[in-house]
Design a protein that fits this description.
376 residues, Butyryl-Coa Dehydrogenase, subunit A, domain 1, 3 domains, eight-stranded mixed sheet, Butyryl-CoA Dehydrogenase, subunit A, domain 3, 8 strands, Butyryl-CoA Dehydrogenase, subunit A, domain 2
Length: 376
Amino acid sequence: MDYVKVAQGVAEVLGVDVGDRDRAGSAPVAEVGVLRESGLLGLLAEGGWRDALEVVQVVARADASVGMLLGYHYLHLWRLGHYDNQELSQRAVRGAVEQGWFWGGASNPRDPGLVLVPEGGGYRISGRKAFATGAQVADRIVVSGTLPDGPKVMLVVAGDADGVTHGDDWNAFGVRRSASGTIAFDGVWVGPEWVVGEVPASEAAARPDQSLVVPGFQVVFVNLYTGIAQGALAAAAEYTRTKSRPWGGGESATQDPYTLETYGELAAEVAAADALAERARLAFDGAVAKGRALTAGERGEVAVAIATAKVVAQRAVLEVTSRVFEVMGARATTAGFDRYWRDARTHTLHDPLAYKLREVGDYTLNGVYPAPGPYS
């Protein structure tokens, strides 16, 4: 399957009514249905991360919420393979391929942990998580909880299991259809067949391939931001060609020298972000392919490449989604183009860019790799 071509078709479908869905907010049930029908949910069964990340970028050009959901789906499904329960991981992949299972997660590291109580070879889960992206519309949810006097354990919960409550309370001004609200677990029982395994005490204590999950989230962000910037620039250019009025007495807005200069600046920023996103995609794909043979140094090189790309992509998307109004004109403020900036501004607050700059600077000046942690 040509996954990028399929993603382009999905983007065309999503682009038809993305503005209406953005204004409505709430759960992206229809969007996940589109992803199921496309076959993109099973991409990792035969495709690599380079394809998966490019697909995220393509979808994000049309709809950032769906690009975000798809990227997180890949990450949650993939991370199951980092444990010794390969039967469960393979069963999960088959579910995505054969039954179109969509995967969400409830494992925000800044939230208090969920509590586990052993029962019947499995566990009962209690607690609440915020920012459970995708969980509200997920067939399966990846969660981690802690035993009262023991380690943290990763589990898979059915999205419609008894005791699972979705808040439907995501009300940010951006990525409004990303199902990123709260989730609560009231004594939810998970059988032994869905127990993934014990989670390392920290990212630093994990094997290099296990700790690659966090850079995985960051490289999804890189491609999400690059896709939003590409989508905003393309939409603005179409508006300028067809609707913007010229200043300074020219015959066409497309010939205004200042408009051309601005588009040149924005296009260069997006091209730089895209080039670094591709470099990060290749680095991450190569690291994943090494599996347990990945070394700490190789993991560090990947983390630096992704951090560098994130700095450029995040700055580009915020610049582009704001400045396109300068070349579209005042009437464009009533046309819904603010969606691109709102999506970018909301998601780029995920973790502070200053920490990525510090990591890149420390590597450049001192040769120090980013220390594995919740966001690196």
